[in-house]
Amino acid sequence: MKAGINQAMRRFLAGAGLAISGLALAGCAQEPKHYGGETGDLHLEYALPQANGEAIPYRLFVPEIWQAGQSWPLVVVLHGYGGNADSPFSDAAGQLQALAQQHRFLVLSPNGYNGMADYGANLPLPRTLGRQGTPLETTPQEESALAQADVLTVLQKVSEEYGVDPERIFLMGNSMGMTGVLHFVDSMPGRWCAVTASAGPPWPDYPVEKMAQLAGVLFVHGARDDIADPADTQKLAERALAAGVNSRMELMPQGTHGDAWIQYLPETFDFFADQDCGSG
Fold first, then answer.
1. pLDDT, tens digit, for every residue of 101-159?
2. Which of 76, 139, 167, 214 has the fewest Cβ atoms nearer than 10 Å?
């Protein structure tokens, strides 16, 4: 087992992440390598306390018109299996930056620790998503907990450094990223203003009533998705609607597993901008 899994990490695992409601993660007071105030398309890294200070990258876009003292909304983007902090930006080919500039949002893309864990959800991954011979340095549960810790630690870091509006934090994710979105809504529903989830795996027993605390939920799926079944997302959306959640699903006729969310990205940012979460 990897030596970097220390006692703080084991306490984090034993507590099942219950401290996340206040983002009170152990070691977050550690002096960061980068400080807020920079604008532009930033490729950064920080030391993850739960992994004995291992350097973890993250990507942050801050429109140049942002100024210190302003309280802007933040969109957190969770990538799919095998991706990294750069993947959503590369896949969207400049759209994330352009839409953030247009709507006056910050955009954060965490790495999710090593990019192959599901942000704390611990759902079985499809067999088609193998490790391709890459050995596990920790247990899958520890990897997943580290991915969760990464997202929450870097979210707190960026929120503090850039004075993010705490009532206008949005979350989105595709494929494994959708699993992460659903997990974070389940475990800390009051933390997010609204979310969008796309092309994820089936989760037939998901507690959709947790979504009722959100201002809005948007599901997106591609009709040409050959990895995740659009019918599963449709069932989840219908269950959410029946539970009184302000939600809807958009099926992209030409959308595939990897690009349906990109096709709908302008409307997704419109959706976020339209949400009233009590601030702004």
1. 999 999 999 999 999 999 999 887 654 444 445 554 557 889 999 999 999 999 999 99
2. 139
Q: Does residue 168 contact residue 193 with C-beta atoms inside 8 Å?
A: yes
For residue 162, what are its two tokens? 């850039």
**Other beta carbons within 10 Å of 134:** 10
CA dist 261 and 238 (Å) reads 19
Q: 16 φ, ψ to 5°?
A: 55, 30
Low-confidence ranges of the chain (pLDDT < 70): 1-36, 125-138, 278-280
Per-residue burial over 83-105, b if 16 or more Cβ lie within 10 Å, else e, is bbbebbbebbeebbbbbbbebeb
SS3 content of the chain, % helix, strand, coil (to 5): 35, 20, 45
Nearest CA-CA partner of 203 in 228, 224, 170:
228
Q: 197: part of which helix (H) or strand (E)?
A: strand 194-198
Q: How far apart are CA 262 and CA 268, in angstroms?
A: 9
Going by DSSP bridges, is the β-strand pair 169-174/74-78 parallel, antiparallel, or unpaired? Answer: parallel
User: What single letter denotes the amino acid at residue 152?
Assistant: L
Long-range CB pairs of 243-247, under 8 A, 24+ apart, other chains included: 243/208, 243/209, 243/211, 243/212, 244/212, 245/208, 245/209, 245/211, 245/212, 245/214, 245/217, 246/214, 246/215, 246/216, 246/217, 247/211, 247/216, 247/217, 247/218, 247/219
Angle at 151 between CA 149 and CA 153, to 5 degrees: 65
Q: Determine how β-strand 40-48 pairs with β-strand 54-62.
A: antiparallel
Length of the chain: 280
